[in-house]
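Today's session is about reading a structure prediction critically. Students often jump straight to the picture, but the first step is always the sequence itself: look for stretches that repeat, for charged clusters, for runs of hydrophobic residues. Only then move on to the predicted structure, which in these notes is written as discrete structure tokens rather than atom positions. Here is the chain we will use throughout the hour.
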Amino acid sequence: MASERSRRLLGGLFLATFGAAMALGMLEVGVRVLHLVPDRFWKPDAHLGSALIPGATGWWTQEEHEFFVPVRINDAGRRDLDRTVEKPDGTFRVMLLGDSFVEALQVPIEQTFARGLEKKLSAAIARPVEVVSMGVSGYGTASEYLWYREVGRQFHPDVVLLSFYPGNDVRNNSPTLEPTFRPVYGADGSLDHVNAGKVAEDGGGRRRGLNRSVAYQYIRKLVLTRQPALAARLADWGLLKREALRPVPMEEGVPVDYWVFASEPPTVWQDAWAHTEALLGAFRDAVTADGAKLVIMVVTAREQVYPDDWAQLQATYPAMRDQAWDLNGPERRVLSWCALNDVRCVALSPTFLAARDTSPRLHWHFDGHWTPAGHALAAETMTEALRASVQ
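Below is the predicted structure for this chain, in token form.
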């Protein structure tokens, strides 16, 4: 009798274990098939801070799943078409440098700004155009300058188009404000390198334990982003690493990044701007010495284009209502620097604001980067601006 009960108990445990395993297996397959967890495409770089992994492939999305995009990094470590270093005869070549707006994981590669500019500018000047695109998430002007100086200039571009996003580029260039890829400057103020921060790499056998499971990663991400109180408690219990909580860096109740838009930002931002303007000057000198033209494109922030997004941000962080803000201030400062230093500078905000109410949304609501419509409008705007650069 006892042995019969034991057999039933073991049978029930087996069925329960089998059922749980089947459910977890189905969840794992479902998350993989639906691409609910983004792949990782970056590796640390001791000189540039980070770099894209040559040959990496996968999918990109985010928590709200506004997009599901297939991604391929070419063998040269760029999200770009394959290009020869030697410029083809008769081709007008643009070297496009920037951060995640240029990397553009949020849209298929054929809908990116780089591909749109290449097509539109070629038609406008009736001449072959190549846009060599180099954008990496987290890059500031410092990393972009180092890459151009050591790699990009070998492509002998006619125009170097530097994408400048005030929303984080000024912070990225600061040795004190930048928390991850911190630039290191010499005693004379010259840039030496950018420190490599902790970068999440592509799976490819590097993950260990539970991190091999995309279902686990998906559930963990949901807890971290949707249930921060539960995540904090799990960290207290030792079931989650506290560094995984990644709280938004704050200053006086305001996310640090937004202080660049303050009418009177803290004094540390003046040092960040000084480094930024020195880097822009070094960029200008290097590009000019190479016989090319530097053009700066000032990228829009979603809050600059959509007042409701700015209002939602202030509702999320009520302390922001106690500060005076000038969302166009950083753009004006870059334009002023360009005017004083004889550099062509194009702000995208006028065309984005003009198209805001008649166009599909130009910035993703949650992600903040450009939608396909935003990429297309930026390409159209810069095509008109670059006509004059073609001799």
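Discussion point for the tutorial: The longest strand covers residues 92-98.
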